[in-house]
């Protein structure tokens, strides 16, 4: 087996290195032309090296869009790597961000949350490694950054660096882990469907219970955008989220699964997913044909074996839906018209995971819906966006170690700040107008925090049951971990052992 892996690795290297001009490429003729002046004159940095077409901002004209262009300087401050360097290759930089280990200055404190059907999802709170106090106060007013990783359970370098950057800027980052992902115990014979937001909804409610004074922002990575967009669409204005960002999202997920990826990428992702599922092979045998499941080599085959009824498989759970019916309930854009907060999507044209931009990015969504904004770069790969010369760094507590800030992460934080400032200014102007009319007013923040999540849409048979109430008797398991070492203390009524 090891020999075959070595041979496959050599073949992949030959494929990349031999046609170097095709994969790495030198600067195009239009890139060599003299760049024009940036549109945003308020940007103070020197941009003589920035390509005029490096980033395209696509949206429906609105007051918020104009405010973002004026106040988010990173929108026009992206200089991707070009020429003969591995960082200029979309596949290599994407693999590096997804697979290479990252040794940062962040530790994670885990909360295992028991949901309504007695299953467990995990929330990993990021804290600095030098901080003695491992848990944050519930009276903290710091904003909370909820991170939804990819749907395969891999915590990538991109996610860990985002946590580090967010901590440095005063956020409280927390990673949402699905059932059975990243060491989360599987205590019920049920896995989370691709676009089922019921578990995420309960996790958000717990976050609001634990940090009631801080605003909540959300970021998704890769296929995790399917879960985040489903949640925002089903909950609408009662999502508790102030603003959201999708990094390299996959929008049309059914066609993405059906089309498939380039075979080495698809083989690697499918192998990683089956490795995680193999921990619960005996438990999953109660609802699926495990022989059929672990013999699949495509992402569609695995998804279909887990949740769908086909002509070659026995229904996994009684009346399981067909493939088309499954996606009617799990397609991320099914309730996109109900989204009521600003959502920024950051995509690259050369993304090897999502596919060709023209057929995979719904341009009409961004041109018609005032809540959706798109930053489309020519280069950047999948959740990578490598730059030539980073101008911003993170300095640790001792000041000895400096690490660059990813361009997409800087853009995320600028978007959150600008969106919050815009709506705060709008709220102040409404209050001032109301006072002039003698009507008084209620602060938007108070009205936002008092919204009830019970107004969210309920899923049909494919979804979960109603939400449990959160209170002092909530069963939790607190865990201090670095994703490799874990000490657990069991709460009342929660089982830690997998089925």
Automatic annotation (TrEMBL):
GO molecular function: monoacylglycerol lipase activity; short-chain carboxylesterase activity
GO cellular component, one term: extracellular region
InterPro entries: AB_hydrolase_4_sf, AB_hydrolase_fold
Signal peptide: 1-22
Statement: the UniProt record of this protein carries the keyword Kinase: no
Keyword annotations from UniProtKB, A to Z: Phosphoprotein, Secreted, Signal
Localization, UniProt: Secreted
Assembly mode: Interacts with PDE3B; this interaction regulates PDE3B's stability and expression and, thereby, impacts the antilipolytic action of insulin.
Function per UniProt: May regulate adipocyte lipolysis and liver lipid accumulation.
Homology family: Belongs to the AB hydrolase superfamily. AB hydrolase 4 family.
Protein name: Protein ABHD15
Organism the protein comes from: Mugilogobius chulae (yellowstripe goby)
């Amino acid at each position: 087996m090891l020999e075959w892996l070595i041979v496959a690795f050599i073949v992949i290297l030959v494929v990349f290195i031999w046609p170097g001009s095709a994969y790495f490429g030198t600067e195009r003729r239009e890139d060599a032309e003299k760049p024009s002046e940036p549109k945003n004159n308020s940007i103070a940095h020197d941009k003589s090296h920035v390509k005029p077409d490096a980033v395209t901002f696509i949206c429906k004209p609105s007051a918020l869009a104009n405010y973002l262009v004026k106040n988010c300087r990173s929108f026009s401050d992206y200089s991707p790597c070009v020429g003969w360097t591995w960082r200029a290759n979309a596949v290599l930089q994407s693999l590096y961000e997804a697979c290479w280990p990252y040794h940062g200055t962040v530790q994670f404190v885990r909360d295992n949350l028991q949901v309504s059907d007695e299953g467990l999802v995990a929330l990993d709170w990021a804290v600095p490694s030098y901080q003695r106090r491992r848990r944050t106060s519930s009276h903290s007013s710091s904003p909370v950054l909820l991170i939804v990783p990819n749907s395969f359970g891999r915590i990538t370098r991109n996610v860990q660096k985002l946590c580090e950057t967010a901590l440095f800027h005063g956020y409280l980052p927390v990673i949402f882990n699905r059932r059975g992902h990243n060491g989360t115990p599987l205590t019920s014979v049920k896995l989370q469907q691709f676009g089922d937001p019921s578990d995420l909804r309960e996790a958000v409610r717990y976050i609001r219970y634990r940090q009631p004074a801080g605003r909540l922002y959300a970021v998704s990575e890769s296929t995790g955008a399917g879960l985040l967009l489903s949640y925002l669409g089903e909950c609408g204005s009662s999502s508790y989220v102030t603003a959201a960002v999708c990094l390299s999202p996959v929008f049309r997920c059914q066609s993405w699964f059906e089309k498939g990826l380039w075979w080495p990428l698809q083989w690697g992702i499918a192998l990683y997913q089956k490795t995680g599922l193999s921990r619960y092979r005996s438990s999953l045998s109660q609802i699926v044909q495990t022989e059929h499941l672990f013999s699949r080599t495509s992402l569609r085959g695995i998804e279909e074996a887990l949740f769908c009824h086909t002509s070659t498989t026995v229904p996994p759970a009684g009346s399981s839906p067909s493939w088309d019916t499954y996606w009617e309930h799990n397609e991320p854009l099914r309730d996109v018209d109900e989204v009521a907060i600003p959502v920024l999507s950051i995509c690259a044209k050369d993304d090897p995971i999502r596919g060709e931009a023209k057929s995979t990015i719904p341009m009409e969504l961004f041109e018609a819906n005032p809540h959706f904004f798109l930053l489309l770069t020519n280069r950047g790969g999948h959740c990578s966006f490598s730059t030539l010369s980073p101008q911003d760094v993170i300095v640790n507590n001792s000041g000895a170690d400096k690490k660059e800030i990813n361009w997409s992460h800087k853009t995320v934080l600028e978007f959150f700040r600008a969106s919050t400032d815009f709506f705060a200014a709008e709220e102040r102007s409404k209050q001032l107008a109301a006072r002039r009319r003698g009507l008084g007013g209620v602060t938007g923040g108070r009205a936002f925090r008092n919204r009830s999540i019970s107004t969210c849409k309920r899923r049909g048979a494919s979804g979960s049951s109603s939400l449990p109430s959160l209170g002092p008797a909530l069963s939790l398991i607190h865990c201090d971990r670095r994703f490799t070492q874990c000490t657990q203390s069991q709460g009342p009524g929660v089982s830690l052992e997998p089925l």
